[in-house]
Design brief:
about 55% helix; alpha+beta; 20 strands; 7-stranded mixed β-sheet
Length: about 625
């Protein structure tokens, strides 16, 4: 019976509203007092039923909840035959609960959208080579799947054949489609806008990126921040205190109606709902913009950030070296480039790959008499010419003269953090290339935005040599930059900031070697395309490694923290005003107080919902 009544709360609220309306029409319109009284009595009885059941359930676990206060107040008003007050109070309380639940459901809409986007079926290749539709739970790692235009990608995997564009908004927050071809990675839950793909399943079920997103967001919703835990403790003691105040007022004044009014006006409903609605709305906004916030505790610490520490490679930089600049010192460029490409094609060194990518399509010639010079480069014969490819030391060994302009170019490129690749043909310098890991597009502007949001110190840590790190730091404009750092050195630096300098520190990284620092920092922020260990260890995940999400994430948590404080001030302010009005004015009564109380709940809910529209 209790479950049935509680499940019909909204219908009971509607019935109460109808009965109250009938009562006022009978009394004011037709002067039929009996119908008015009976309508209000019935409205009071049916309205208090679900509230009393919730109060009883709370008392069974030794909690004096808001429902206890309202139940006592309504019964008291009924006893003194103030049926109008008792009916209106129960209706307003039930209607407030309805608004509260409906609004909370809206704030969870972003997360609900995620779960609804989860794929349910897949076209799986069977033993005879045919593709058959099966439930996504029947797909195993290594299976080959067919995805047609308009279908959802069922698993994380790689493209085996075909091409097409995929809407990855559910993973990255980006609305623009991404082109996919042979070897491209794909994510579960994304949608193939056009084309046809065959993919191999690398991760299935809860192990997919999409599955982890849903799991992380749901865990974040269930977590409680320090503010929420404080409010839980506050309510535990506050509610009995209000009950005690009501009893004390009755003992002193013998005014039973005044005591009952105090019970109604002292209900801290807006205080209880204000912080959770801000928390859920903030996490929902983050999920929509490709930012995973793992709980409201993260919001609290992140919003008070002092220092943000970055791993360089793969975080501030792209993570793959490329040619930043090339200079020619002889006329026959095409032949020299062809000789260079022919030698580099036989190497798997990262610099060789960067050089080949820069040269692009060219004629590859036979390479003979290859000699690898340790710490210098490569010397070989290409099409009858002696070609040396390497650093300045190799040029000196090969007696290649470096004129004044070449030496100036070498110094300039080295000073900018480039690795140098020189090419000499038959003892004459032809090409100089500067190769380095490029800074991510837009990072300089993003770092500036972080400073404007109140981050006092921006620190870069890297395993690269200090010269390269200094060159990159000058371009980025960070506060500090430290090179030659092993993973344990990075962790020690983070520990020093937190324990000795008492700073609130965020660490941003993407690799396995970043995991200790991500775990040690107050806030660990992982790039979404980084390793599983880094993502699992972190507190915040930037999906698709989009660095530009970081300023939005910081601005969002600051806005959420402010919103929580605003709701606490509104809730406490309304309660204090109502209680003061009882003693200092003659116009305050239960109905007016309850109306103001429910209005305050609606105000904090609407204030929290503003976070759903937040954009930096």
């Amino acid at each position: 019976m209790q479950g049935l009544i509680l499940s019909k709360k909204n219908q009971i609220a509607l019935a109460s509203a109808i009965l109250i309306t009938i009562a006022f029409i009978a009394k004011l319109g037709f002067k039929i007092e009996a119908i008015a009284v009976w309508s209000l009595m019935i409205a009071s009885v049916i309205g208090v039923a679900p509230i009393a059941i919730q109060a009883y359930q709370a008392l069974r676990v030794r909690v004096v909840s808001i429902d206890v206060l309202v139940t006592i107040a309504v019964i008291g008003a009924f006893i003194i035959q103030n049926f109008e007050e008792s009916a209106i109070v129960t209706f307003l309380f039930l209607f407030g609960a309805y608004l509260e639940q409906r609004t909370l459901n809206k704030t969870r809409a972003a997360i609900k959208e995620l779960t609804e986007m989860a794929p349910e079926s897949a076209l799986k290749q069977m033993g005879n080579g045919e593709f058959v539709e099966v439930g996504v739970e029947e797909v195993d790692v290594g299976d080959i799947l067919l995805v047609k235009t308009g279908a959802k990608i069922p698993v994380d995997g790689k493209v085996l054949s075909g091409a097409g564009s995929i809407n990855e908004a559910s993973i990255t927050g980006e609305s623009l489609p991404v082109e996919k071809e042979l070897g491209s990675g794909v994510y579960a839950g994304t949608i193939l806008d056009n084309g046809t793909l065959q993919i191999s399943a690398d991760r299935v079920g809860e192990d997919t990126t999409f599955g982890k997103i849903i799991e992380l967001v749901e865990e974040a919703q269930d977590s409680k921040s320090e503010a929420e835990r404080f409010i839980d403790r506050f309510s535990k003691y506050y509610t009995p205190a209000v009950l005690g105040l009501g009893v004390l007022v009755w003992l002193i004044t013998r005014d039973f109606e005044l005591a009952i009014t105090i019970l109604v006006l002292g209900c801290p409903g807006a205080l209880v709902i204000g912080v959770p609605v801000s928390h859920v709305a903030g996490i929902g906004n983050g999920a929509r913009h490709g930012i995973l916030l793992k709980g409201s505790e993260v919001i609290s610490d992140f919003s008070r950030l002092d220092t943000m520490v970055f791993d360089k490679t793969g975080t501030l930089t792209v993570g793959n070296p490329s040619v930043a600049e090339k200079i020619f010192y002889a006329d026959d460029h095409e032949k020299a480039l062809s000789y260079l490409a022919s030698i580099e094609a036989e190497s798997d060194h990262p610099l060789a790959k960067a050089v080949l990518t820069e040269i692009g399509a060219t004629a590859f010639l036979p390479v003979a008499d290859t000699e690898v010079v340790k710490g210098g480069g490569v010397v070989a014969t290409v099409a009858g010419h002696r070609v040396a490819v390497g650093n300045a030391a190799l040029m000196e060994r090969e007696n290649v003269p470096l004129h004044a302009q070449a030496r100036a170019d070498l110094a300039r490129l080295a000073g900018s953090g480039n690795s140098l690749v020189l090419t000499a043909v038959d003892g004459e310098l032809h090409i100089l290339m500067g190769v380095r890991d490029q800074i991510r597009p837009g990072v300089v502007n993003d770092l500036h935005r972080l400073k404007k949001l109140g981050v006092k110190n921006l620190v870069m840590l890297s395993g690269d040599n200090q010269g390269t790190v200094d060159a990159v730091s000058r371009e980025l404009g960070v506060t500090e930059a430290h090179g030659n750092m092993l993973p344990e050195d990075k962790s020690a630096y983070i520990r020093k900031l937190i324990e000795e300098q008492k700073q609130i520190v965020a660490f941003v990284g993407d690799g396995v070697n970043d995991s200790p620092s991500l775990a040690l920092a107050n806030i660990g922020i992982a790039m979404g395309s980084g390793t599983d260990v880094a993502i699992e260890t972190s507190d915040v995940v930037l999906m698709n490694s989009d660095f530009s999400r970081l300023p939005h994430a910081l601005g969002l948590v600051k806005a959420t923290a402010r919103n929580m404080k605003q709701n606490i001030v509104i809730a406490i302010g309304v309660v204090l005003f109502l209680l003061a009005s009882v003693f200092l004015s003659e116009w305050m009564n239960m109905s007016i107080g309850m109306l103001a109380h429910e209005a305050s709940i609606l105000v904090v809910i609407l204030n929290g919902m503003r976070l759903l529209r937040y954009r930096l």
